[in-house]
Amino acid sequence: MLETDLVPRHGWQSCTLGQTKESNINFDLASLKSYLLSGWRDILYDCMVVAASAEYCDRSYRRPGHGWGRIFNLEIPVHDARKWRSPEISQSLQLMLTYLTGDQCHFQFVDRIVQACEPLQGNFIAEQIPAPTLAYSNGMDSRMVSALLSQQENEIIRVRLGKREAELDKTKDAIPFIAIPYSVKPGGTNLEVSFRTRGFKHALISGLAAHLVNSKRVIMPESGQGCFGPALIITGHAYPDFRNFPVFISYMERFLNLILEDSIRFEYPRLWSTKGETLKDYLQLKSIGWADTRSCWQSSRYAGADGKKRQCGICAACLLRRMSVHAAGQDESAEVYIWSDLSASTFEQGARSNFKRKLRVHREYAIAGVQLWQQFAEFPRAKVYHHRSKMMGIQLSQVLRTSSQEIETRLENLLSNHEEEWVAFVESLGKKSFIREWITRHDSGN
Amino acid sequence: MPLSKDGGIAVLTKSEKISIVADMEGSMSDGPHKSLPMKPGWKCFSEGADKGITETEDLIQEMVSAIDKDVRSECSMDLIDAVEDLLSDRRGQLSLEADDGDKQRFEDLRRQWCGSSLAEIFVTTAEFIFQGGLSGTQAHNQLWSIVFLERALAGLRQIEEHYLRRVGARRFDAFLKRLREVEQQFDPNTYAKHYSISHRIPRPRKRDQLEDGARL
């Protein structure tokens, strides 16, 4: 990681850090300013540099086809290398990242040559509000959970995960946490798409915000299926996705508290609820709608039709959304999705008729998504369930400070409710649905 | 109270400060990608199941051989030795409640060695067994039994996904039936009992000699 135009050491790949578009890690001073409620602090900047460096490595190098983990040696300039080198901090960082990504990151911290460029101070209005922070993404979970929590909390500080938008610059008051203050441009062309370090980035940004407003509380809005499904249903030699799993978050919490010398806690108000149950509770509030939220992570390139960015409708995230909307007794316009008709008898027929890019990759994502939610529904009958449930009880009892017996019972309830919602959703698609046919085939093997 | 362009988001919270936070672009959480390419051992297994000419017990043997190869490629010898050592009677410190030192030992293993899903489940299972108070042979058997079962189910899931993507209905249905037979008849304890990283699990012997005859 080079803070200036230095030449990298022989055999090392350089990653440049700066405020220009050419830099691999580019800090946006206006967004960064929104993180400086109580003045510039080197450590906050350094935390972001470390997260950005991990992201750069993660996205720049493809994982091996028949393996998973990679080994990275990173040399990172920070303002206080001695602090970062302390065994407790460096080991907690390494444990958190290894557990999240399945990669081995070895950090060497060196002192910066020059002080990082400080943005001018802003006049921020959220200084020292003892309110919990919540990562906000315009997804359903963050919309619903912020509304539900606003019934109990005086304030909720929403931390925006995304780029700064021009609209925000026009506002009279300076707004805290308007965007992630840096962007990462990966090196090379053969990029890795799994991007597991995203979990680090999002948890870090919410944690820094909680530290800055001195609230000590971070709300994780994810519902149970999103926390447990990708962590429990493992396919082949792929590494489990722990981004929203409480064990990863507990490692993140420990790292943050060591580096910031704070006592921040992450909370999971909807961990044991399905997304459908959260939507039902949200509807009771008679708050604003949910329909304009977005669940699909596909880019416009893959999910655009008729000149509009839509949601694909068949990836795991879209399927979870559609199942949850069904479970809450709601309807959604078919206009929202590219795959607007899941009752169609073939996958191809389910897409909008004028959508010409029926790529093989869409079908593959659809199969992976259907399998994930089907197997999550079947999990209590899997041969691994008994010991997995016990393991989960022990692991999470320490993290959530609840008895292992209670964890097992709650997990069982969550899985049972998910199964009920999934089965009802699939049945609602009609007997000829291509999704139902995939599942029937899956069941016929039993 | 300032309102956002669509006039909506402000009512979500009592805080004015966050009322105009706009929508995000591009950083949504993603779902599972299509599964990774099958490893050679699993490819042999799936081809055997697809041909329909291999006996279920041979298929199981083929699958166990694939798992054995996975263990060798995904778990380092140092990790296996360290875990076996922790679970052995040699330490003589086992108790039902793991103390902070024990917790730290497992975290160190996770930090240093977990670069694969197999290594991760290996350490997590070992910690679970350790906390349950098992040691020695019992611990060894349970550990490998769970690790074998976990990888078997993950491998079968991957194969099912690959075939669902690629083959027609009739062929897929027949194939899936064979996978289910393997899943149901697979007893990981049989293999865990004698499992040692120093002895490879062989692939099933080809039955192509005259004296092999027809199997009952």
Topology (SSEs and partners):
The complex is a heterodimer of chains A (446) and B (216).
Chain A (H helix, E strand, L loop, with lengths): L16 E2 L6 E3 L1 H5 L8 H19 L10 E8 L2 H5 L1 H15 L2 E8 L21 E4 L3 H10 L7 E4 L5 H4 L12 E3 L13 H15 L4 E3 L4 H9 L13 H15 L4 E3 L7 H10 L15 H4 E2 L2 E2 L6 H12 L32 H19 L6 H16 L3 H25 L5 H11 L2
Chain B lengths: L39 H12 L4 H19 L2 H11 L12 H14 L3 H15 L4 H31 L2 H17 L2 H6 L23
Helix pairs in contact in B: 1-2, 2-7, 3-5, 4-5, 5-6, 6-7
How would you describe the overall organization of this protein?
The complex is a heterodimer of chains A (446) and B (216). Chain A is α/β, with parallel strands linked by helices and 446 residues long. In chain A, 43% of the residues lie in helices and 9% in strands. Chain A contains 16 helices and 11 strands. Chain A has helices spanning 29-33, 42-60, 81-85, 87-101, 140-149, 166-169, 198-212, 224-232, 246-260, 275-284, 300-303, 316-327, 360-378, 385-400, 404-428, 434-444; strands at 17-18, 25-27, 71-78, 104-111, 133-136, 157-160, 182-184, 217-219, 265-267, 304-305, 308-309. By secondary structure, chain B is mainly α. Chain B has helices at residues 40-51, 56-74, 77-87, 100-113, 117-131, 136-166, 169-185, 188-193. Chain B starts with 39 loop residues before the first helix and ends in a 23-residue tail after the last helix. Residues 1-32 and 92-96 of chain B have low confidence and may be disordered. At the A-B interface, helix 4, helix 5, strand 6, helix 12 and helix 13 of A face helix 2, helix 4, helix 5, helix 6 and helix 7 of B.
Task: Give the tags.
heterodimer; A: 4-stranded parallel sheet; B: 216 residues; mainly alpha; elongated; disordered N terminus
Q: What percent strand of chain A? A: 5-15%
Beta strands of chain A, count: 11
Biggest protein-protein contact in the assembly? A-B, 102 and 73 residues
- Biggest sheet: strand arrangement of chain A: 6-5-8-9
DSSP helical segment count of chain A? 16
Give the proportion of residues in helices of chain A.
Answer: 40-55%
Instruction: Let me know the largest β-sheet of chain A.
Output: 4 strands, parallel
| Approximate helicity band of chain B | 55-70%
What distance separates the N and C termini of chain B?
A: 81 Å
**Major beta sheet summary of chain B:** none
Order of secondary-structure elements of chain B: HHHHHHHH
Distance between the termini of chain A: 53 Å
Question: What's the helix-strand series of chain A?
Answer: EEHHEHHEEHEHEHEHHEHHEEHHHHH
Radius of gyration of chain B: 24 Å
Overall morphology of chain B: elongated
